[in-house]
Backbone:
C-alpha cells in the first residue's frame, strides 16, 4: 500500500492517525503475541504430559488413568468450542482470548495443589542411613508383615480420590480457558492478514505453538531433577538420587512456573482492537492494491447481525450438515484426526516409553523430547509453510505435499519397531506369566523365611545379572553402607543369588540396559519421521480455510476442533495408556491395592507403541490420497466448464431456480 492510500485509510478511522501508530493495530504484533500465548498455554498443558510417569509413581496411577487425566481437559473444550467459534466474528476476539488465558492460569495453580495438601512422599525406605536405620534385608525367622489393613486401604483410597478430583478440576478449567485461544486467533489472523502472508503467519503460529510442548518437556527435565519434597526436607535428608527407580521429581514446581508465564502473556490481548486494517503486501501491483484497500475499508465484523443463542441452536444443525457434506473439509479433518491421535500418544507417553525402553531417567527422556522431537516438528511445520508460499501451491498441490510427507514418514518409522531393548530378567514373588515367560524368576522358596514385605520395591542387580525387586527378596543378609557419602555400596550373603564366578552379592539400583547404543539411531529416525509428518500441518489447515464459505470460517474451524477432540484428543491418550498397561508384567502394591506398574515387557511395549503410531500415520495417508483425487476430479470438471461455458450457465441457472429463498437468508445469517 502506498503512503497516500495509507493516509486515506487512516483518516477514515475513528481515532484518525493514532490507530496507524498504535502497535496493537498491527497483525504482525498480534501474530507475535498469539504465538507467545499459545506457547505458554501449551507449556502448561504439555507440562502434565512431561511429568505423567512421575505423577503415576507418586500417586500410584495406571497409564490408563493418567491417559484419562491427560484427555480430560478436552471435555470442557469440546462442549464449548463450537458455540464460541460461531460467535467468533461477532465478539471482541482478542478480549475473549485474554479472559480465556486467565482461566488457564488459574487451572495451572490448581494443578499443583495436591503436593501441598498431601503429606511427604513415602517410599520403600530400605536404605540404611544417618536418618533411617531400617534395612530391607533378609532376617531369617521373621514374620511376613501384614500387607495392609482396612484403615490403610481407606486412607489410600481417600487420598487418591482427593488428588484425582483436584487434577480433574484443573484439567477441566484448562480446557475451558483454552476454548477461544486457537480458533479466535486463527480466524483473526486470516481475516486481517493478506492472502499471500496468511500461510506464512499460520506456519509461524503453528511453529511457535509447537515450541510450547518443547519448552514444557525441557522444563519438566529441569524440575524432575529436584526431589519432590525439596520444600519439606533439607538436601542432607534426601537419600534417593535421580537414577533410583523410587525417585520422584518436583512435578508440582513446573505448574507454578508455567501458570505465571500464561498470566503475563495474557495482558496484551486487552489492548488489541476488535477490528484492524487489512494487511497489504508492499510489492503488489497498484491494480491489486486498490481493491484490497477497498476490501479493508469495507470489512467490519461489527456490521454482522447479532445472533441469539436460541437462533444459533436452531440454525447450527443445518450449518453443521452443510459443512459435513463438504468432501474436502471432512476428508482433511479425518486425516488430521489420525495425525492428532498419533501426536497424543507421542506427547503423553513418549517420555515414559523412552524411560522404560532404554532405562534412562525421566529427566533425560524429557530433555530428548524437548530438544529433538519437538524441534523436528517445528522444522516440519515451518518448511511446510515456506513451500506453500515459495511455490504458491494450489489446493491439489497442497494435498500432494501431504501425501508425499506422510509416505516418507511411514517408511522412516518402520525401522523403529526393531530398535529397542529386550526385557531385563527380574525376580519377584509374583508376575504375569503370560507376558513374562522366560523373564521372571520366582524367589518365593529362597526368601520365604526372610519376612519380606509384599509391597517392597527397592531394585538391586544381582551378580547373576538378574534384577531383584528388593534385597529381601534376593535373600541378602548383609548390607555395606558408606556413611561418609550416605550411600549403599553393596549387599552380600544373598541366598537367592547363585553366580559361580561372582558369588552371592548384589549392587543397589536397576541392572540398566545393554542396548543403550541403539538410543541415538532411534532418536535420529524419530526426529526425521516427526519432521516429515508435520509438513502436512500448514497445508491441511490451508485446505480447510479455502474449502469453506468465508462467512462460516469461524464456525468451520470450531467444528474442526470439535471433531478433532471427539475423534482424537479425547480417546487418544486413553487408548495409548490402555495399550501400555497391557504390556505390564508386574504391578506395584500400596496397602494391598494395585499401584503403578513396576516392570513392562519391553518388546511388546515397543511393538505396540510404535505400531499404533504407524497405523494412524497410514490412516492419515489414505485420507490425504482421497483428498488429492477429489481435488483432481474438481479440476477436471472446472476445465470442462471453461471449455463449454454455455452449458455451465444453463446448469447454474437451473440450480438457482431450485434454491429456496428462506435457505438463502439462513445461509447469509
Residues:
Amino acid at each position: 500500500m502506498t503512503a497516500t492510500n495509507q493516509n486515506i485509510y487512516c483518516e477514515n478511522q475513528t481515532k484518525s492517525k493514532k490507530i496507524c501508530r498504535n502497535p496493537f493495530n498491527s497483525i504482525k504484533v498480534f501474530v507475535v503475541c498469539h504465538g507467545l500465548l499459545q506457547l505458554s498455554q501449551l507449556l502448561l498443558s504439555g507440562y502434565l504430559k512431561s511429568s505423567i510417569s512421575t505423577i503415576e509413581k507418586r500417586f500410584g496411577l495406571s497409564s490408563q488413568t493418567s491417559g484419562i487425566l491427560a484427555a480430560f481437559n478436552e471435555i470442557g473444550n469440546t462442549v464449548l468450542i463450537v458455540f464460541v467459534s460461531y460467535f467468533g466474528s461477532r465478539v471482541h476476539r482478542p478480549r475473549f482470548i485474554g479472559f480465556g488465558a486467565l482461566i488457564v492460569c488459574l487451572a495451572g495453580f490448581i494443578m499443583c495443589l495436591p503436593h501441598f495438601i498431601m503429606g511427604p512422599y513415602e517410599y520403600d525406605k530400605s536404605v540404611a542411613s544417618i536418618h533411617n536405620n531400617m534395612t530391607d534385608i533378609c532376617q531369617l525367622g521373621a514374620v511376613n508383615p501384614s500387607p495392609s489393613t482396612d484403615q490403610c486401604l481407606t486412607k489410600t483410597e481417600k487420598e487418591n480420590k482427593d488428588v484425582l478430583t483436584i487434577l480433574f478440576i484443573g484439567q477441566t478449567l484448562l480446557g475451558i480457558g483454552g476454548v477461544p485461544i486457537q480458533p479466535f486467533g486463527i480466524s483473526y489472523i486470516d481475516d486481517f492478514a493478506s492472502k499471500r502472508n496468511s500461510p506464512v503467519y499460520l506456519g509461524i503460529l503453528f511453529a511457535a505453538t509447537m515450541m510450547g510442548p518443547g519448552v514444557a518437556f525441557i522444563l519438566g527435565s529441569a524440575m524432575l531433577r529436584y526431589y519432590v519434597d525439596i520444600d519439606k526436607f533439607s538436601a542432607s535428608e534426601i537419600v534417593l538420587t535421580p537414577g533410583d527407580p523410587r525417585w520422584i521429581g518436583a512435578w508440582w514446581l513446573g505448574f507454578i512456573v508455567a501458570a505465571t508465564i500464561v498470566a503475563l502473556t495474557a495482558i496484551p490481548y486487552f489492548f488489541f482492537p476488535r477490528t484492524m486494517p487489512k494487511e497489504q503486501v508492499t510489492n503488489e501491483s497498484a491494480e491489486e492494491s486498490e481493491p484490497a484497500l477497498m476490501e479493508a475499508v469495507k470489512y467490519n465484523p461489527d456490521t454482522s447481525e447479532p445472533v441469539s443463542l436460541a437462533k444459533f441452536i436452531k440454525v447450527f444443525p443445518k450449518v453443521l450438515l452443510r459443512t459435513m457434506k463438504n468432501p474436502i473439509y471432512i476428508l482433511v479433518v479425518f486425516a488430521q484426526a489420525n495425525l492428532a491421535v498419533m501426536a497424543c500418544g507421542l506427547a503423553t507417553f513418549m517420555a515414559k516409553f523412552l524411560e522404560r525402553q532404554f532405562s534412562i531417567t525421566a529427566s533425560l527422556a524429557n530433555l530428548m523430547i524437548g530438544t529433538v522431537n519437538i524441534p523436528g516438528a517445528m522444522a516440519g511445520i515451518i518448511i511446510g509453510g515456506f513451500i506453500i508460499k515459495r511455490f504458491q501451491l494450489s489446493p491439489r498441490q497442497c494435498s500432494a505435499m501431504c501425501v508425499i510427507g506422510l509416505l516418507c514418514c511411514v517408511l522412516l518409522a518402520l525401522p523403529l519397531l526393531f530398535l529397542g531393548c529386550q526385557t531385563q530378567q527380574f525376580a519377584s514373588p509374583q508376575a504375569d506369566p503370560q507376558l513374562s515367560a522366560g523373564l521372571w524368576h520366582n524367589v518365593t522358596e529362597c526368601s520365604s523365611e526372610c519376612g519380606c514385605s509384599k509391597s517392597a520395591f527397592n531394585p538391586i542387580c544381582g551378580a547373576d545379572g538378574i534384577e531383584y525387586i528388593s534385597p529381601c527378596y534376593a535373600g541378602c543378609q548383609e548390607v555395606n553402607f558408606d556413611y561418609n557419602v550416605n550411600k549403599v555400596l553393596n549387599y552380600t550373603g544373598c541366598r537367592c543369588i547363585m553366580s559361580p564366578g561372582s558369588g552371592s552379592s548384589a549392587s543397589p539400583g536397576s541392572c540398566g540396559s545393554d542396548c543403550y547404543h541403539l538410543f541415538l539411531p532411534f532418536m535420529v529416525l524419530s526426529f526425521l519421521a516427526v519432521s516429515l509428518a508435520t509438513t502436512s500441518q500448514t497445508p491441511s489447515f490451508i485446505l480447510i480455510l479455502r474449502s469453506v464459505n468465508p462467512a462460516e470460517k469461524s464456525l468451520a474451524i470450531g467444528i474442526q476442533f470439535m471433531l478433532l477432540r471427539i475423534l482424537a484428543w479425547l480417546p487418544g491418550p486413553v487408548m495409548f495408556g490402555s495399550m501400555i498397561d497391557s504390556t505390564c508384567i508386574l504391578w506395584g502394591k500400596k496397602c494391598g491395592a494395585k499401584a503403578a506398574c513396576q516392570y513392562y515387557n519391553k518388546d511388546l511395549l515397543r511393538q505396540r507403541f510404535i505400531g499404533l503410531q504407524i497405523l494412524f500415520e497410514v490412516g492419515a495417508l489414505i485420507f490425504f490420497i482421497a483428498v488429492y483425487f477429489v481435488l483432481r476430479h474438481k479440476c477436471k470438471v472446472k476445465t470442462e466448464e471453461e471449455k463449454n461455458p454455455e452449458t455451465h450457465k444453463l446448469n447454474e441457472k437451473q440450480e438457482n431456480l431450485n434454491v429456496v429463498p428462506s435457505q438463502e437468508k439462513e445461509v447469509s445469517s
Remarks:
- The beta strands are 426-427, 440-441, 460-462, 467-468, 478-482, 487-492, 506-508, 584-590, 593-600.
- The longest helix spans residues 602-643.
- The CA atoms of residues 20 and 577 lie 52 Å apart.
